[in-house]
Design brief:
7 strands; 14 helices; globular; alpha/beta
């Protein structure tokens, strides 16, 4: 399975004035969904190659869902906001971190003999900041490192064993001080994601720029970002052999789908599953909120071993 995580993406209203998913040119995604969009009124749906289900991200807890508790729920199968009594984010506090240390998805799979990988590449300054205590891991790298899996580095990225967080590598040139850094086209990044996913039972990629775009409330930038995302999905799904497994595209909370606010939303989040019909149907059979994702992944991967 490839777990393609999109931070801050909900299923919103089909209104191009506030929802970039209602106006962005995303031809490949729409072809997967038989002409439909990634909006609330078009879910649920099953097509020849894709299944879309809305998932509850509020989890019975008042307030707006947040990244740390939402991602911890995705990675543990525990309703972390309910256990704590509140939503929390963006980075894990000690209580959230404790859930991620004990029995997270990566750790449980490794204990079963399965291979896992987080294929985001992190720059040297990230590791320096973690080492000096100036920065804390977010939920996903915290979970993977507690499973004993090393984070990918610039060296992994340069030899094609990882991906830039922005897909293309432009951020390494523009923000990280590598003016000659090699660039990928979005479709090439998607194809690389597919190739790397074949090497593991569970491969994870985290895309957080969707959440940033939601907080900025810039419609033009959001629409441009979604056009790039569509090209990545085209490269990924176009290189994916459905008989090999499933692609899961999912989020932790709403945000980008409603640019009328800078805050997160209470909208359901999409669970988009790409692959063969029967595994898709089995995977989503009991999937209705974030807490069901980790158990569904464990069931799928352990039954296939």
């Amino acid at each position: 399975m490839l777990f393609f995580f999109l931070d801050g993406v909900g299923l919103g209203v089909d209104d191009p004035r506030i929802n970039p998913f209602a106006s962005a040119e995303m031809p490949y995604l729409r072809s997967l969904l038989d002409g439909r969009k990634l909006v609330a009124s078009d879910a649920p749906i099953d097509t020849k190659r894709a299944t879309l289900r809305p998932l509850d991200a509020c989890l019975g807890v008042p307030g707006l869902p947040q990244s740390a508790t939402g991602q911890a729920t995705l990675l543990t199968g525990v309703n972390v906001p309910k256990a704590l009594g509140y939503h929390y984010g963006p980075k894990p506090n000690p209580a959230v971190a404790e859930h991620l240390r004990n029995g997270n998805l990566f750790k449980r799979l490794r204990n079963l003999g399965a291979s896992t990988s987080l294929i985001n590449a992190y720059p040297p300054r990230y590791f320096d900041a973690i080492h000096t205590g100036k920065r804390l891991h977010s939920a996903i790298p915290l979970a993977i490192t507690h499973a004993g899996v090393a984070l990918k580095t610039i060296d992994d990225l340069l030899v094609g064993k990882a991906l830039s967080a922005d897909f293309t590598g432009a951020g390494w040139r523009e923000h990280l001080g590598y003016p000659d850094f090699p660039l990928l086209q979005p479709g090439e990044a998607g194809a690389r994601m597919a190739r790397l996913a074949i090497e593991n039972d569970l491969t994870f990629f985290e895309f957080w720029l969707t959440d940033y775009a939601g907080h900025k409330q810039n419609m033009a930038e959001a629409v441009s970002l979604l056009a790039t995302l569509d090209q990545v999905i085209a490269g990924l799904a176009g290189s994916w052999q459905d008989a090999e497994g499933l692609i899961l595209v999912i989020s932790d909370h709403g945000n980008l789908e409603d640019l009328s606010t800078r805050r997160h939303t209470v909208n359901p989040v999409p669970a988009l599953v790409i692959g063969s019909l029967e595994p898709r149907r089995e995977f989503v059979q009991n999937l209705d909120d974030l807490g069901g994702v980790a158990p569904a992944i464990l069931s799928l991967l352990t039954s296939a071993r």
